[in-house]
Design a protein that fits this description.
Helix content: 40-55%
Family: Belongs to the RuvB family.
Strand order of the largest sheet: 2-3-6-1-7
Pfam family, one: WHD_RuvB
CATH topology of the largest domain: Rossmann fold
Structural class: alpha/beta
Number of strands: 11
CATH superfamily of the largest domain: P-loop containing nucleotide triphosphate hydrolases
Order of helices and strands: HHHEHEHEHEEEHEHEHHEHHHHEEH
Subcellular location: Cytoplasm
Organism: Streptantibioticus parmotrematis
GO molecular function: DNA helicase activity; hydrolase activity
Largest sheet: 5 strands, parallel
Radius of gyration: 23 Å
Number of helices: 15
């Protein structure tokens, strides 16, 4: 089965990531957009942009395995959503000339689910397990033996009459992906022969991603236009590709089809993505923190009520990027805006920060 036709879409590494990416373009990607995302994935390690250290290390692991005629070591990829973990898993399978099986941690809730998948693997096959930290504990413990000894014990029966039947497995390569490596238990983490951490992309690397994707989409984008899109993409290739498609639509309808800096800026303003990559929710959080609460400190629940969102949405969707950009800080007393946040919204910090100014959410 083609992995892109799987009911589970590996393009979305976790729920909050999907929300964060979707809200940058105003609506969820439809079937056509998902097909385009699949088409934009690099098929070879040499085509993969960025992550130089991980690519170099992984290239050595795969070349050595091919020279020995052996199955590649198990691989663990960690990092934020949208940085290419799923793409690298598919490249590993392609480089090893092996088929790939795609599943996810939340889909494996019982040891029997994992046993069914493992028992159907072919020799040398790559099993991609997305969000591996969300797998159930019984399945996790079964995976220990499968990774190390290529064997699982299937329990038949219950109580005193239960019998363990050993099931031999063909050598396979497990590629685990996680956005929260700290949640993996040490016994599982230590069984991976190679661990790679994916970093956020620099603007210059994202420009290369935009130019490559534009070529595949047959879109005319100049250097300044690509730089404008890259600068608003939060250091994430998936978001860069999505913004490129939305700017392409704008250029097709409102301009002559060529993406220049002016066209890209106008298009992204329509989609409410500002020059630092902040969207409507991000700016609403900052605006409430600055105007209503004088820059903080303020509790998360209070801040969520002020912007009309759930606590979890603010904490998991908006805050990580704001903290990474140095616009918001988490303290024991609550959330606090940094001087950069005041500057970004063009506001002047009040003289006495302890007393919030008496003004509304979106203006005096």
């Amino acid at each position: 089965m083609n992995p892109y036709d799987s009911p589970y879409d590996p393009a979305y590494d976790d729920e909050s990531a999907e929300t964060a990416a979707d809200r940058l373009v105003g609506s969820a990607a439809d079937g056509e957009d998902q097909a385009v995302e699949a088409a934009l994935r690099p098929k070879e390690l040499a085509e993969f942009v960025g992550q130089e250290r991980v690519r170099e290390q992984l290239d050595l692991v795969l070349k050595a395995a091919r020279q020995r005629g052996a199955t590649a070591d198990h691989v663990l990829l960690s990092g934020a959503p949208g940085l290419g973990k799923t793409t690298l898993s598919m490249i590993i399978a392609a480089e090893m000339g092996a088929p790939i099986r795609i599943t996810s941690g939340p889909a494996i809730q019982h040891a029997g689910d994992l046993a069914a998948i493992l028992s159907s693997l072919q020799e040398g096959e790559v099993l991609f397990l997305d969000e591996i930290h969300r797998m159930s504990r019984p399945a996790e413990e079964m995976l220990y033996m499968a990774m190390e000894d290529f064997r699982v014990d299937v329990i038949v029966g219950k109580g005193p009459g239960a019998t363990a039947i050993p099931l031999e497995l063909p050598p396979f390569t497990l590629v685990g992906a996680t956005t929260r490596a700290g949640l993996l238990p040490p016994p599982l983490r230590d069984r991976f022969g190679f661990t790679g951490h994916m970093e956020f992309y620099a603007p210059a690397e994202l420009e290369r991603v935009v130019h490559r994707s534009a070529g595949l989409l047959d879109v005319d984008v100049d250097t300044d236009g690509a730089a404008e899109i890259a600068g608003r993409s939060r250091g994430t290739p998936r978001i860069a590709n999505r913004l490129l498609r939305r700017v392409r639509d704008y250029a097709q309808v409102k301009a002559d089809g060529v993406i220049t800096r002016e066209v890209a800026a106008s298009a992204l303003d329509v989609y409410e993505v500002d020059r630092r990559g902040l969207d409507r929710l991000d700016r609403a959080v900052l605006d409430a923190l600055l105007r209503l609460f004088g820059g903080g400190p303020v509790g998360l629940s209070t801040l969520a009520v002020a912007v009309g969102e759930e606590r979890e949405t603010v904490e998991e969707v908006a805050e990580p990027f704001l903290v990474r950009e140095g616009l918001l800080a988490r303290t024991p007393r609550g959330r606090v805006a940094t001087p950069a946040a005041w500057a970004h919204l063009g506001l002047v910090p009040p003289q006495n920060v302890g007393n919030p100014p008496q003004q509304g959410l979106f203006g005096p």
